[in-house]
C-alpha cells in the first residue's frame, strides 16, 4: 500500500499543487484497496470530507493509473498516518524535509488553493496594476515595507485570484514555509470549534506558527466580537514576529461597519490597495487571454470579428460574469460546431446581456439622438422619410441594437410599430456608412459616450 500511495502522492503533488497536497492529501494514509474501494486513515473528519469533495476524482484517477483501479474512497477517521509512504519519505527536490506530524494538525485549518489562480493567468491593466505589483512583491518573500497587504474591491474583481497567486508563488519560492490561506468565515469556524473542543491553545499555536497568513473577505468578522478579539491577537503575534499577512475585503478598513477601531487601525498600518472597476481595455485583455487558453484545448474554435469587443463593451459588471459568458459561448460552439458570430453570441447570452444592460433604454437613445440632430422626438416613431429625419432614426435603431439587448421586433415596436426587417435594414445601412463616413463615426462615438455616461 505504501508503495502505491507513495507513487500516487508524487503525482498528486504535481496535479493539485504543493499547498493543497500538504494541507489535504499528505495527512492521509492508504490502508487498503478492496473491491474497487480505496481505504484511507484520516486524522479528522474535516480532512476526509474535504478530500472527498475536492480531490476524490483526481485520487481515483491517479491510483487507477498506478495499477490500482478504484471507483470509491472510504475514510477511517482517527489516528494520524503512522508511516510515511515511500515516495513521500524522500522529500521532493527543493522541499524541506519535515516531521510527518508537523503539518498534520494544521491540515484542517486552511482552504485549498485554486491551481488556475496564478500570476501568469492574471491580466494586468490600469485598474489593478498597483494591487498586482504589491502582490508580486509580497510573493517574493523577504522583508517587505508593508504589513499587512490589504486588498479591497468590488465583487469579482480578482482579490481571491491575487491572493491564491501570492500563495502559489511564495510557496514555490519557499517550499518549506507554511502558508495558510482561509476565509474569515473559516477562521471563525475554526475558532469556535477550538473553543468547543477546548483546544484553543493548539489553535493559537497553529495560527501563530505560519510564515504567511492570508485571510479572505475579512469583513465577515465585523460584529463578531470574540472572533475579532482572537483575530486581533493572532494578527499582532504574527506581525511582531515579522510574518507577512495578506487580507482582502470588499471595502477599505475604515469603511467596514462593526469592525473594532483597533483592528481598523492595525489593518491600515500596511499597504491598502484597491482593485478598481474594470475598464473596457482590461476586460478585452481578459477575454483575449481566456480565449487563448480555450483555443489551446480546442484549436478549431472560430470566433467572429468583434465578438470579444462586443462582450467587453456590454458586460461591465465583473470578471466572473464575463468569464461565465465566455465559457457558455465556447460550450455552445463546441456542441453545435458553429462559429461564434455576433448573432450567436447575442442569442446565446441574451439573459446575461439583459441583466448587464447598463440601463440604457430605447427611450434614452431616441431622445439623445433627436436632440443631437435637432429633430422632434415624435419623428423617431413617425413615418417621415426625408433624409434629415430618416438618417437619425436609423442611427437610433443602430444604437438600440448595439447598446440594449432588445430583439429586432421589440425595437421595431418602439419605433412606431415598424417591422423587424425595417430595423435590420436601418442597422445595416448605418454599418455600411460607418465604414466610409468618418464624421458619422465621430457622431456615433459621441452619442455612445453620452448614453453610457
Ligand atoms: N485581472 C484578471 N485576470 C484574469 N482573471 C481575472 C482577473 N480578475 C478577475 N479574474 C477572474 O474573475 C473571477 C473572479 O475573481 P475573484 O474570485 O478573484 O474575485 P473577488 O474579487 O475575490 O470576488 P469576491 O468579492 O466575489 O470574492 C476569477 O475566476 C478570476 O480568475
UniProtKB/TrEMBL annotation:
A single BP term in Gene Ontology:
regulation of DNA replication
Provide the binding site for ATP: 156, 158-160
Q: Where is this region: Domain I, interacts with DnaA modulators?
A: 1-82
Start and end of every AAA+ ATPase domain? 145-278
Alphabetized CDD domains for the sequence: AAA, Bac_DnaA_C
What is a single molecular function from GO for this protein?
lipid binding
Q: What is the first-listed, main subcellular location in coarse terms?
A: cytoplasm
Q: Name one GO cellular component term.
A: cytoplasm
Where do the record's region annotations for Domain IV, binds dsDNA lie?
334-453
Task: Relate the assembly described in the record.
Answer: Oligomerizes as a right-handed, spiral filament on DNA at oriC.
Please give the record's comment on domains. Answer: Domain I is involved in oligomerization and binding regulators, domain II is flexibile and of varying length in different bacteria, domain III forms the AAA+ region, while domain IV binds dsDNA.
Please give the family membership noted in the entry.
Answer: Belongs to the DnaA family.
The protein in question is named Chromosomal replication initiator protein DnaA
The root-end lineage is: Bacteria, Pseudomonadati, Pseudomonadota, Alphaproteobacteria, Rhodobacterales
Amino acid at each position: 500500500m505504501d508503495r502505491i500511495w507513495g507513487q500516487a502522492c508524487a503525482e498528486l503533488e504535481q496535479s493539485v499543487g504543493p499547498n493543497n497536497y500538504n494541507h489535504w492529501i499528505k495527512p492521509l494514509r492508504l490502508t487498503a484497496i478492496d473491491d474497487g474501494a480505496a481505504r484511507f486513515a484520516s486524522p479528522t473528519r474535516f480532512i476526509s470530507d474535504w478530500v472527498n469533495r475536492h480531490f476524490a476524482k483526481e485520487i481515483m484517477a491517479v491510483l487507477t493509473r498506478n495499477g490500482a483501479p478504484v471507483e470509491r474512497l472510504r475514510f477511517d477517521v482517527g489516528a494520524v498516518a503512522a508511516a510515511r509512504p515511500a515516495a513521500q519519505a524522500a522529500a521532493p527536490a527543493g522541499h524541506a524535509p519535515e516531521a510527518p506530524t508537523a503539518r498534520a494538525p494544521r491540515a484542517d485549518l486552511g482552504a485549498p488553493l485554486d491551481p488556475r489562480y496564478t500570476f501568469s493567468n492574471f491580466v494586468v491593466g490600469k485598474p489593478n496594476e498597483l494591487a498586482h505589483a504589491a502582490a508580486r512583491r509580497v510573493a517574493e518573500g523577504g522583508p517587505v515595507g508593508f504589513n499587512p497587504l490589504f486588498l479591497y474591491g468590488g465583487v469579482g474583481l480578482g482579490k481571491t485570484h491575487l491572493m491564491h497567486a501570492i500563495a502559489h508563488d511564495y510557496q514555490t519560492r519557499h517550499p518549506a514555509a507554511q502558508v495558510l490561506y482561509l476565509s474569515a468565515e473559516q477562521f471563525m469556524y475554526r475558532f469556535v470549534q477550538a473553543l468547543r473542543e477546548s483546544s484553543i491553545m493548539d489553535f493559537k499555536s497553529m495560527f501563530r506558527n505560519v510564515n504567511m497568513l492570508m485571510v479572505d473577505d475579512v469583513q465577515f468578522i465585523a460584529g463578531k466580537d470574540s472572533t475579532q478579539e482572537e483575530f486581533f491577537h493572532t494578527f499582532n503575534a504574527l506581525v511582531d514576529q515579522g510574518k507577512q499577512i495578506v487580507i482582502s475585503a470588499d471595502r477599505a478598513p475604515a469603511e467596514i461597519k462593526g469592525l473594532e477601531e483597533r483592528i481598523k487601525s492595525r489593518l491600515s498600518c500596511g499597504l491598502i490597495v484597491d482593485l478598481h472597476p474594470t475598464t473596457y481595455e482590461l476586460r478585452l485583455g481578459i477575454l483575449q487571454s481566456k480565449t487563448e487558453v480555450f483555443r489551446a484545448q480546442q484549436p478549431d474554435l472560430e470566433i467572429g470579428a468583434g465578438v470579444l469587443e462586443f462582450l467587453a463593451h456590454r458586460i461591465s459588471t465583473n470578471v466572473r460574469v464575463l468569464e461565465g459568458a465566455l465559457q457558455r459561448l465556447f460550450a455552445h460552439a463546441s456542441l453545435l460546431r458553429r462559429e461564434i458570430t455576433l448573432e450567436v453570441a447575442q442569442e446565446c447570452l441574451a439573459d446575461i446581456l439583459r441583466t448587464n444592460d447598463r440601463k440604457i433604454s430605447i427611450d434614452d437613445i431616441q431622445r439623445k439622438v433627436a436632440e443631437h440632430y435637432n429633430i422632434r422626438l415624435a419623428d423617431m416613431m413617425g413615418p417621415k422619410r426625408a433624409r434629415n429625419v430618416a438618417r437619425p432614426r436609423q442611427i437610433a435603431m443602430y444604437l438600440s441594437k448595439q447598446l440594449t439587448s432588445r430583439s429586432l421586433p421589440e425595437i421595431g415596436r418602439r419605433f412606431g410599430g415598424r417591422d423587424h426587417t425595417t430595423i435590420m435594414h436601418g442597422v445595416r445601412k448605418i454599418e455600411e456608412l460607418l465604414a466610409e463616413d468618418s464624421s458619422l463615426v465621430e457622431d456615433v462615438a459621441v452619442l455612445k459616450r453620452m448614453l453610457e455616461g
